[in-house]
Predict the structure.
Amino acid sequence: MWLVFALATTFIWGLAELFYKKGSHAEEKYGHLKVCVCVGLVMGIHAVFTLLTQDIGYSFTNLIKYMPVSLCYIVSMAFSFFGVRFIEESISDPIENTSGGIVCLMCAILLGDKLSLPAIIAVVLILIGILGVGFLEGKGETDRSKVLGKRMAMVAFAMPFCYAILDALGTFLDIYYLDMATTPLINVSEASIENVANTSYELSFALCALILFIFMKIKGVKFELPKQKDKFLAAICETGGQFTYVYAMSGNGAIAAPIISSVCVVSLLLSRIVLKEKLTSKQYFYIALVIAGIIILGTLDI
């Protein structure tokens, strides 16, 4: 069954990226905050469901203790939601998925881990791919500054990188938080620690969503929840993918990881088929290098 869950996670998260893009519009000033509210609402519902149906011995003190990790993930997603208003999903998603490579580098630099030759090759491929995409971003038909202005074009293109860095930092911190020997979380066991961490993250996202909803109401932003279909579909897919991910990784994580790491391939295909995104052959080449590096990194635990 773990293989079914791994494939399901890959497809569901690919769908989430598709709906994030469909629900994001460049002219919608607070669109990224609206997506945050929708995701936070769905995650909050899932967190409450978990607390009511599973005996994980949850202490709300963990909401505070896990907050540094939660904020890394939440802010990174807010950056992603802002960037996807202006950047093609075919470009932003592969860049965002380089967070795994950044984690490898952080572990090597800060924890003294040694990078294997395949890991070095993967990181080099990712760097070449990102540099290539970045170089082409300001050339010819892909010169976004003609439409957005130079400053906004630079800000928009920086968003996937901001996501990757913050998501990597959250993952790096999780190494400490999800280790029973070092975790500051309380009332946890080997069986419950991941559920407790995820519930804390979802509750934090729900709290941030409430704050953002109040902020937009004060600002007089028109925001009718029933009309946010694509945003809610993205939120449901995001949360559903987290659910299947746990079962995929618990079954055979070493093989499930590289399968799930190919989610950007699914996103790329869906963006091309459904959203009709068209990139140049050079862009596809450099994005392929990034994806190849991501998949190589995903196979290293096998």
About this structure: Residues 229-261 form the longest helix (33 residues).
